[in-house]
């Protein structure tokens, strides 16, 4: 998948350890029955960080989310470490919060920090008790193995049905200093975020105030993760958190302005790429679908329209079958909930193989089925909606609906 | 599928012709490439009817919907006939309304009524011009073949990806007179109604005022069709219409009261069964899923919660795989949008093979996987949600998500 190139930002290696002062590790502790699969991960900052986070708006919230929220409140928005496991979501369990707090204590003890400085997250099956013993048994080795090189082990530890590790990082200049911002994400199914998505950990050595960090995260998540849907199911354990340790030595970004915009753009590029990776690696997916909605009256309308299209099971099935079914796209626009004049809408389908207009002024057009099938045969598709009722653009990302989505989810727990 | 038995109501044969004075027919006119498949249908009443209808709330509305709305306005809520085709939705076409009006004129000419007394409907592919010639060529024979026996031909004419014809009828006593109410429906995919669903034609010989007919339809649709989802995609052509010709000779039902309730219950039983038939015949479905939400604080909450569960792709996939994944059910409750105390919720899975409690007080419970798999191996499943926060019950209906749903929709147009 292509990275969006932009002057002033250079993509670098290192994931969550690309930023100075961050170490990570991952190991197999035994939650997963596959002994080759990492299931426990850790991130550590050599210096105390300002932390910002957004969470799922699902009323059923994973116990780790509740504990992380309490911790960040107790620490006044500071954090130094992340402890995270896969295979078990530690959600809908009577002793869930107790276990999540245990994980913080176990990590804090090894790292010689307070448990309140630990962000805890879990992902996997909901409603099954989390065994704490495997974590307790492996925490010492996990912490001892922390290093700048082990970002990949950590990225692997958070994978569930993901087929690829998701890491990306950029470097950029802020107040004359070189800063780095990188992250990792997991997610493949149960993805339809609202205010956050799946597990995402972002680290930066830029100095940014807690307030501006939270503001940047909210603004960027709105146009990246919250414009992503794999299957319409909003997870109970969604979380995006950003840790900023300030080691780069720039003057702290503490207000809106040029520096804030520079930082926010770095965050955007990293979250954008992770969002696209999540969509492309949606459960069973064979294609990335990007829907671009242009000439909308406002941002919310553009997002709502684009997201409705990439969420439609019928559109997703048609894209799997390379079928240029413009009626389903118009149908999804019509029920999206935004007040649109559907009689003005143009729809174009595009990929590396070219583009084709399939709908003009709200009506289906005659087009070459052969050309359409060639365009839709590619692995990265764009659905371009022009509303012709304003000047705002937004994008949303999703994937096709395939036999394998059903196969993966017909028997996920075993 | 079992009919819901109820004292005072007897299920009878005859579909849309079960009520006295209604005739129907269906034929193959050539819109469908399969010469064995009826694609044009007609219903006719010997006497002018009071008509009530509810329509899709999709902003993209099929041209037949717009024309039917105009006709019922012009005729002050009276109608005598229905003309309907499958294979082409006549939606998102520049000449759509003109063609829909042509269909009314063609039918009216044969039936010697005014075009405004005709209800017109189309279902099928969106965004392709409707050829009117096949309809014009066959309208005479279609009208000439109208009979009480041909309700099945009409029911077949509205099928698209449906695998079974959907007809049901009841008889009941109203004001001392025997009345009949029957209907037919089509629908399999693009089903997630709001105020109406897919194509549904209901006929009755009971005398009911236009106002009470509309009120009964709205009330019943709220707890039947609007609690149905196959794939979350709300169609552009949804319509439920009821024609009441009064031939039974009862005193007209013109206000709320006992007669109104008796009539409404007949309408409920017919729409309930058609709703369940639509769910069971959802595209690719192998199982009917009924979600019953009890002890809710109000009806809207109960409906919202039940509908969220049966709409979840993850729940639907799990049911296909007979996997008792209670976490996904709780997850779907958590994002349904209603304000629930999820810590009180019990979840039970049931079928003809028994029932099993999988969640108590918002937490997952230990249960026999063997027993759960046996229960979920059946073709009709019930998910019982007890919210423990009120005394209102509602149901919603859906189906499992299968490989065949994807197969059917990856290449629907060809």
Describe the structure.
The structure is a homodimer of 414-residue chains. By secondary structure, chain A is an alpha+beta fold. In chain A, 31% of the residues lie in helices and 26% in strands. Chain A has eleven helices and 15 strands. Chain A has helices spanning 63-74, 96-111, 133-144, 151-157, 210-223, 258-280, 299-311, 313-320, 326-334, 369-376, 403-410, and strands at residues 10-11, 22-27, 40-55, 78-85, 118-122, 166-174, 177-186, 199-204, 239-244, 288-296, 346-351, 354-360, 363-364, 380-386, 392-399. In chain A, the strands form two sheets. In chain A, strands 1, 2, 3, 4, 5, 6, 7, 8 and 9 form a nine-stranded mixed β-sheet that branches. Chain A starts with 9 loop residues before the first strand and ends with a helix. The relative contact order of chain A is 0.14. The model of chain A is unreliable at 193-197 (pLDDT under 50). At the A-B interface, helix 8, helix 9, strand 13 and helix 11 of A face helix 8, helix 9, strand 13 and helix 11 of B.
């Amino acid at each position: 998948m292509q990275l969006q190139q932009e002057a002033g930002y250079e993509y670098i290696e290192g994931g969550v350890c690309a930023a100075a002062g961050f170490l990570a590790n991952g190991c197999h502790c035994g939650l997963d029955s596959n002994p080759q699969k990492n299931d426990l991960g850790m991130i550590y900052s050599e210096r105390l960080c300002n932390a910002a986070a957004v969470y799922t708006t699902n009323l059923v919230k994973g116990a780790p989310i509740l504990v992380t929220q309490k911790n960040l409140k107790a620490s006044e928005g500071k954090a130094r470490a992340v402890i995270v496991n896969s295979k078990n979501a530690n959600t809908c369990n009577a002793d869930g919060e107790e276990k999540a707090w245990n994980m913080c204590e176990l990590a804090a003890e090894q790292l010689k920090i307070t448990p309140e400085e630990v962000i805890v997250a879990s992902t996997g099956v909901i409603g099954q008790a989390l065994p704490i013993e495997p974590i307790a048994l492996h925490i010492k080795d996990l912490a001892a193995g922390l290093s700048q090189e082990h970002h990949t082990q950590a990225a692997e530890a958070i994978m569930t049905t993901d087929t690829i590790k998701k890491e990306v990082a950029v470097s950029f200049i802020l107040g004359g200093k070189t800063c780095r911002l990188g992250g990792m994400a997991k997610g493949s199914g149960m993805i339809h975020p609202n205010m956050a998505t799946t597990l995402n950990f972002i680290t930066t050595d830029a100095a940014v105030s807690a307030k501006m960090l939270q503001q940047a995260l909210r603004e960027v998540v709105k146009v990246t993760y919250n414009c992503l849907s794999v299957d319409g199911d909003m997870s109970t354990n969604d979380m995006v958190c950003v840790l900023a340790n300030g080691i780069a030595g720039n003057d702290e970004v503490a207000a809106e302005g040029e520096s804030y915009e520079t930082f926010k753009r770095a965050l955007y590029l990293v979250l954008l790429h992770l969002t696209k990776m999540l969509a492309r690696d949606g459960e069973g997916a064979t294609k990335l679908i990007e829907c671009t909605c242009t000439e909308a009256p406002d941002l919310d309308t553009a997002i709502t329209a684009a997201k409705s299209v990439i969420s439609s099971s019928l559109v997703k099935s048609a894209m799997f079958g390379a079928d240029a079914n413009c009626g389903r796209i118009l149908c999804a626009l019509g029920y999206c909930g935004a007040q649109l004049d559907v009689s003005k809408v143009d729809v174009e389908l595009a990929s590396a193989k070219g583009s084709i207009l399939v709908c003009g002024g709200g009506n289906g057009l005659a087009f070459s089925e052969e050309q359409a099938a060639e365009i839709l045969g590619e692995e990265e598709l764009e659905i371009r909606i022009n509303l012709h009722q304003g000047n705002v653009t937004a994008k949303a990302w999703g994937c096709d609906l395939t036999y394998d989505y059903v196969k993966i989810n017909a028997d996920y727990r075993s």
